[in-house]
Automatic annotation (TrEMBL):
It catalyses: 3'-dephospho-CoA + ATP = ADP + CoA + H(+). It comes from Brevibacterium aurantiacum. In the N-terminal section; belongs to the CoaE family. It comes from the Bacteria. Its main location: cytoplasm. This is Dephospho-CoA kinase. InterPro entries: Depp_CoAkinase, GrpB/CoaE, NT_sf, P-loop_NTPase. It is found in: Cytoplasm. Catalyzes the phosphorylation of the 3'-hydroxyl group of dephosphocoenzyme A to form coenzyme A. ATP binds at G11, A12, G13, K14, S15, T16.
Length: 386
């Protein structure tokens, strides 16, 4: 199952995109509907709320009187905390039930208004943000919902800002134009990324990649993307494992292939193999591999590559004290601090990328850099040559 988080600020049109995704076959788990489900007449939570906040919160029809609950629950911090302590577990458990009910689905979308505010994005393979400029959202709230400007502005201000959302969401869906244009954008997203991602995840195969082309670093947000991926890995594996952003995309100002390289450190290779099934579920199938240390020496590791066709990621799983792990970390630090070495490496990359341009040339491009890396290993990890 490909798990997708869907969010957007109030007035952005998240519900419109949710409906479009459903029309393309995605199962929608709607957080707002679940919040209403758990307080429906006869639900255990409703009785617990009445016990804590008084029978007045139950309406004449046996449902929840939301105004009465708000009046009772938001009078002080203790009451608000009590409300959250009752509501959140019930919503969480009901959400889990919905996901379990659709465990055979290819794509499940969790539609959550406060996905970012509640720090939930790391739980999904992919996060979609429905994006509309704040001023247009304000106009929509005033015209379509009849809100007063002050009320609409206050509601927008209480939610996460654009930059906060951009930092943690993987795909930005522009919904500032017509519904038809949004439908076309979402259809392309489904065809080009979501369905291939889901198929790769099910088959536990890495996504196809293009030729070894260098990308101008200007305007790239590789470190932000890397942190999103690291957060997802930590959510799925636990935070006891150190994960570093390595490789050229970790060096500001350095041209690079549009591939995020990460390094996950483990105590031994047995642990690396134990993590393999969990990594595959997170979208990182892998196999036994090795680092070429030069002079005919190889060092064992695990190599995982991701299933998302929209974002290439290499995950190197190495033991903590391995030569490969130390060199990867030290090499990035060198390039960040030494302008001359960074430029020398950049020139080498440009030359080799031209020599090995074209489909299927990524491996030969990587192999062609090995003599340079051997020299750097002697400089940065000299003890490994004793």
């Amino acid at each position: 199952m490909l798990k997708i988080g869907l969010t957007g600020g109030i007035g952005a049109g998240k519900s419109t995109v949710s409906e479009i995704l459903a029309a393309h076959g995605a199962v929608i788990v709607d957080a707002d509907k679940i919040a209403r489900e758990v307080v429906a007449p006869g639900e255990p939570l409703l009785a617990l709320l009445a016990q804590r906040f008084g029978e007045d919160i139950v309406a004449a029809d046996g449902g929840l009187d939301r105004a009465q609950l708000a009046a009772a629950a938001f009078v002080d911090e203790e009451s608000t905390a009590a409300l959250n302590a009752l509501m959140h577990p019930a919503i969480r458990d009901r959400t889990t039930e919905h996901f379990a009910k659709h465990s055979d689905a290819e794509v499940v979308v969790h539609d959550v208004a406060l996905l970012v505010e509640n720090s939930m994005t790391s739980a999904y393979h992919l996060n979609l943000l429905v994006d509309v400029p704040a001023e247009l959202r304000l106009e929509r709230l005033m015209s379509a919902r009849g809100m007063a400007r002050d009320d609409a502005e206050a509601r927008i201000a209480r939610q996460a800002g654009d930059e906060e959302r951009y930092a943690v969401c993987d795909v930005i869906i522009d919904n500032a134009e017509s519904v038809r244009q949004t439908q076309d954008r979402v259809a392309r997203l489904v065809e080009d990324r979501i369905l291939p991602f889901a198929a790769n995840l099910e088959a536990q195969r890495r996504a196809e990649r293009g030729p070894a082309e260098l990308v101008d670093p200007v305007g790239q947000d590789w470190p932000i993307q890397a942190q999103r991926i690291i957060d997802k890995l930590h959510h799925g594996l636990g935070k006891q494992f150190r994960i570093d952003h390595i490789g050229s995309t970790a060096v500001p100002g350095l041209a690079a292939k549009d591939v995020i390289d990460l390094q996950l450190l483990v105590s031994d290779l047995d642990m690396a193999r134990e993590l393999a099934p969990r990594l595959a579920l997170l979208g990182y199938p892998g196999h036994d591999g090795s680092d070429n240390l030069g002079e005919g020496r190889l060092e064992s590791k695990r190599f995982h590559a991701n299933t998302d066709p929209g974002r290439a990621v290499n995950l190197h799983v190495r033991t903590e004290a391995s030569v490969g792990a130390v060199f990867a970390r030290e090499f990035v630090q060198l390039l960040r601090s030494d302008d001359c070495e960074r430029e020398r490496y950049a020139q080498l990359k440009r030359t080799l990328a031209n020599d090995h341009a074209g489909e299927g040339q990524s491996e030969s491009y990587a192999e062609a850099k090995e003599p340079y890396f051997l020299t750097m290993r002697r400089r940065l990890v000299p003890g490994s040559f004793d």
